Amino acid sequence: MKKTKDEMRAEYQRSDFKTLERGKFFKEVAKGTGVALIDPAIAKSFPTSEAVNEALRNLLTFTEQTSRITARSKRASRKRVAA
Predict the structure, then answer these.
(1) Nearest-angstrom CA–CA distance, 6 and 79
(2) For residues 14 and 8, is the Cβ–Cβ distance under 8 A?
């Protein structure tokens, strides 16, 4: 096995890691909530986590309503008799 050097890859810069905060999401994880990282362009549309949750709830409600409309019947299909 190779020994790993204590070096970062060339594409990483130490300056990228100045604002890291240890345990940033600990409280949320301890409560059992999920943490998801959202693309910055999308995050601009949602000022708070409540806004994200509301949008996701609405999306789930919408998909449940539309899936009932498009779902195939669970009844056994009748075979058509050729005339």
Answers:
(1) 70
(2) yes
Tell me how far apart the alpha carbons of residues 30 and 25 are, in angstroms, rounded to a whole number. Answer: 9
Per residue in 35-48, pLDDT (tens digit) is 788 898 999 999 88
53's enclosing H/E stretch is: helix 49-70
Dihedral angle of Cα 21, 27, 28, 31, to the nearest 10 degrees: 160
Query: What is the reported pTM?
Result: 0.45
Q: Is 52 exposed, middle or buried (0-12, 13-18, 19+ CB in 10 A)?
A: middle
